Amino acid sequence: MIAETSAAISTQPCVFDDIKNKNCNIAIWRRQLSFDADILLINNPKSFRTIVRFDKCRSLLQSAVVQAGYIEGAALTNLINDISDLCKIFQPFACTQEIELRLEVIDGDACRKFHSDFVTLGLISTYSGPGTQWLDSGDDQAGEEIEPNSIHEMAPGEVGLFKGRLATNDPVIHRSPPIKGTGKKRLVLVLNPYEGTDY
What is the 3-state secondary structure (H, E, C) of 160-192? Predict the structure, then answer.
């Protein structure tokens, strides 16, 4: 699946196995959500971050999303189910019993500069709004003067499994797309292995 790019892309979740290839630093599951996630932002919920065991993910989410201000309903149930499923998919790659789970509501230019993360592997998916942007290996990089044609962008619903700086000398370079002043909002899930360091 890897051809002249550092990315493996497929409509099947088995694409994540390609992350084990040394030439691959991001594997993208190209999928569409089965529910309208935009409605989840109507009540202006808050971002939250927590540490969770894989086997406790669903029960923790059910309380965390209510505390964060999400309105209960079909869309929220679908969100909880989807995040729980992604936690199960992420578990074999995380190599830890716990993960850091972040569900972020973004309306500004958070992490607008291209960068790599200080993790082994991470999983990211945007439920609403513009998706995460990334660069191929060799499009170097961690600055702002990047040729627009070199910038790739994940679509809402797509899931990316990426290598960070703790896994390789060639981590994926990515950023949150600049949206300040556009009136747009993003709802983004990030999963990282929890190594026992407080945040």
Answer: EEEECCCCCCCCCEEECCCCCCCCCCEEEEEEE
Between CA 199 and CA 186 the distance in angstroms is 23
pLDDT digit string (tens) for 18-28?
999 999 999 99
3-state secondary structure 114-156: CECCCCCEEEEEEEECCCCEEECCCCCCCCCCCCHHHCEECCC
CA–CA gap between residue 29 and residue 182 (Å, rounded): 28
Q: Are strands 7-10 and 26-29 parallel, antiparallel or unpaired?
A: parallel
Of 33, 29, 31, residue with least CA distance to 17:
29
In degrees, rounded to 5, the angle at the alpha carbon of residue 184 between the alpha carbons of residues 193 and 148 is 75
Q: Give the helix/strand (H/E) hosting 91.
A: helix 74-94
How many angstroms separate the Cα of 179 from the Cα of each of 103, 126, 175?
A: 18, 14, 12
Residue-wise pLDDT tens digits, 89-108? 999 999 888 999 999 999 87
What are the distances in angstroms from CA 8 to CA 1, 59, 85, 86, 103?
Answer: 6, 32, 21, 18, 25
Q: For the chain, report the end-to-end CA distance as a whole number of angstroms.
A: 36
